[in-house]
Amino acid sequence: MTDAKAFPLNAWYAAAWDHEIGRALTPRRICDRDVVLYRRTDGGVAALEDACWHRLLPLSLGHLKGDQVMCGYHGLVFDAAGRCTFMPAQETINPSACVRAFPAVERYRLVWLWMGDPALADPDLVPDFHWNSDAPWVGEGGTFYGLKCDYRLVIDNLMDLTHETYVHAGSIGDDAITRSPFEVTHTDRQVTVERWMEGIEPPPFWARLLGKPGHVDRWQIIRFEAPSVVAGDVGVALAGTGARTGDRAQGVNGFFLAAITPETATSCHYFWNFVRNFRTDDAELTKALTRAHVNDGKGVYDQDHDVLEAQQRAIDRQPRQPFYNLNIDAGAL
Amino acid sequence: MTQPTEWRPARLRSSRALTPDIRLLEIEPSVRAAPVPPGSHLGVAVMIGERPDTRSYSLLDSAADGLYRIAVKRLRDSRGGSAYMHGLAPGARLSIAGPRNHFGLALGRPGYLLVAGGIGITPLHAMALALHQAGAPFRLLYAARTRQDLALADTLRARIGDRLLTFADADGARIDLPAAIAALAPGAEAYVCGPYGMMEAARRAWGEAGRPAQALRFETFGTGGRHATEPFTVRIPRLGKEIAVSRTQTLLEALEAAGVGMIHDCRRGECGLCTVKILAVDGTVDHRDVFFSEAQKATNAQLCTCVSRVVGGGITIDTADRTG
Description:
- Chain B: Pfam families: FAD_binding_6, Fer2, NAD_binding_1.
- Chain B: InterPro entries: 2Fe-2S_ferredoxin-like_sf, 2Fe-2S_ferredoxin-type, 2Fe2S_fd_BS, Beta-grasp_dom_sf, Cbr1-like_FAD-bd_dom, FAD-bd_FR_type, FNR_nucleotide-bd, MRET.
- Chain B: Residues 5-106 form the FAD-binding FR-type domain.
- Chain B: This is Diguanylate cyclase.
- Chain B: One of its GO terms (molecular function) is 2 iron, 2 sulfur cluster binding.
- The complex is a heterodimer of chains A (333) and B (324).
- Helices cover 17% and strands 33% of the residues of chain A.
- With 333 residues, chain A is α+β, with helices and mostly antiparallel strands.
- Chain A has 2 domains: 12-125, Rieske [2Fe-2S] iron-sulphur domain (Rieske Iron-sulfur Protein), CATH 2.102.10.10; 132-331, Alpha-Beta Complex (Naphthalene 1,2-dioxygenase Alpha Subunit, Chain A, domain 1).
- Chain A has a 7-stranded antiparallel sheet.
- Chain B contains 7 helices and 16 strands.
- Chain B has helices at residues 81-86, 121-134, 153-160, 177-182, 196-208, 251-257, 294-299; strands spanning 7-19, 22-29, 40-48, 51-58, 68-73, 93-101, 112-117, 138-144, 164-168, 189-193, 216-218, 232-236, 241-245, 275-286, 302-304, 309-318.
- In chain B, helix 3 links the parallel strand 8 (138-144) and strand 9.
- The two termini of chain B are 27 Å apart.
- At the A-B interface, loops of A face helix 2 of B.
């Protein structure tokens, strides 16, 4: 983690929840580039460089005219492909005048942008995030925009859940996590960390959701897809009922989902969700789970938020190679 | 506010003739070239006699192997740049700038028409390769004076097949622009690079087909017009000056050399900053810019001094210089 800019540009990054992008011009910084997002009249999402070709005023300060953006300074107009369609006080348009248009796709309730070579922007390369949108999984989700840490610190956080014991004691944290062995496997684009804690006392969060007394088998199967998506298959089932060999009928199962997008070298946008496949009609439970994760500074993710930003501040002040690695870090490495 | 040009060292790897007056040059930068988007051009420092100058050449491909490839036509009307480039031997040291791109190819359109005239094939060669690789629907119509002048056509045909259609004036073959445009899907884009007359014809046909102006893409370096390049004189009565513009100078360069204060930026007939008022014309104004509309050019009220010229005499103008 020593290089200043370690985000690959030829990748799809989550830029917004689909419901956030409408007919307003939404500015967002992605991979150190200013982008303006808006919805076209045909329903698709357009993403342009947020700087007018002429004097670099952010186009997000202008306004939409149909599918085109008019700059709020001198009235230049750009279409959704970034082509200039109007120049003030002349009868022609300078053929060089354009702004960059970034490939955008909507998938899994998120808007994904490709910041690198557009010729390589294959929608089939959008990371698998289907738990965020597809039945039977249900959850609300949210975003920490502008989280003040390198996006890789979030991945580091999620790929080693040992931290739950110390950061999230009282909800999902438990000494059993630190005592249990784990297995790390990987392909060229994916890493999986699998950890089973068998015959343990369930931590409070899971005990409430399971709603049954007794010991449990607990699992954490965390899957990372390069460069920045994590999906964690987590849950508990009554001990010895076969969860580890594939029968989760006596348990409860959820996925924590994270799409982490570099904003700058030292800040990121963290799109998160916690989805479940039980009590899916229970809107109160959905709200309660969202509150458990983010709750005005008191949720599980708020605790991570504090740690991650403090960690980045420490890195910024430390002249030494920032990290020593432990055995528990294999998933993140 | 224009960024200063950063020059980098490079070496001419090879130079070979493609046609009697077009050479293919391979340039190896001292730091391996990064991939280049189609439509990009390279700046090259040249010597015109004893005077240093710069020229821009479109790149033929994405430089995937780390080499910049350009094709240079030796022009009869040359101001000296193409003669210099043709005279370089392999191993020659060069200064290069960029690449930069004013002629970007947008992917994802429902169709593409590429139209090349003569040496205008160079940026469209790179675009055709990129579109072919992307599996996009496109056609490249390529016209030249004779079959022999169709540089790069054979190698290109081997790669893109019958998407390439060639036309030789000498055989009486002409591109039917209205028909080619009519065959395009709605929302398609056209990219044109060629002599002034071809670009003008393309703009007219595109407009008459009712297609949006921004979907016709073209690039101009302002090096050709409707007439041959010849010397002419320019008179500025208010400043009491009469200046000779040589065949190898632009009007803007001649005015600057004579101490007339000029405002300018792009130097390729696009931005409209170097325009002056025409008071009288002795001869014909050869408007070579893309800043003025056809209607404005017809009134002969102003001209772009960076590219436009006069044939058959001279011109009387007034400028914005009020220092006198």
